[in-house]
Amino acid sequence: MWRFKNAFHGRTLFTVSAGGQPAYSQDFAPLPPDIRHAVYNDLDSASQLIDDTTCAVIVEPVQGEGGVVPATNTFFAGVA
């Protein structure tokens, strides 16, 4: 599974670790293993993580916690 840096997906143990923000996950353990992180709006970064073990991609259409950054149409279509 992979997701994007500076994302926020909720406050459960899994979602804080998937969000990739240490401030939200540093006090939780054990965290789910093998969650990889790509750069938001960067298809080259995302494409480096796609392989035969990819089971899911977590992405927001607009990153609110990351600074209210909307996904470009090209980026969103590319990770779909």
From TrEMBL:
Record carries keyword Kinase: no
Statement: the UniProt record of this protein carries the keyword Transferase: yes
Keywords annotated in UniProt: Aminotransferase, Transferase
Leading EC class: transferase
GO MF entries: identical protein binding; pyridoxal phosphate binding; succinylornithine transaminase activity
GO terms of biological process kind: L-arginine catabolic process
Listed EC numbers: 2.6.1.81
Superkingdom field: Bacteria
Necessary cofactors: pyridoxal 5'-phosphate
Pfam families documented for this protein: Aminotran_3
Name of this chain's protein: Succinylornithine transaminase
Organism the protein comes from: Citrobacter freundii
